Amino acid sequence: MPLYEYQCSACQKVHEVMQKFSDEPLTRCPECQGPLNKLMSTGSFALKGTGWYTTDYKRASAKSGGESAT
User: Residues of the chain with pLDDT > 70: what percent?
Assistant: First the structure.
């Protein structure tokens, strides 16, 4: 299940909530009942190791900025 972050407009607290995609977004703060805003956060997904495009399949010319046409 995805983890969503909400910030209360009244008390400014940030809440992390695990919800299904089909669940309705939260609208009220669980602590003060103030209005909540859904926050955009960055994901923590990274491709590491061998076998990925940037480490194994990318052309050498693309790493140096490309070849100049003369």
Answer: 71
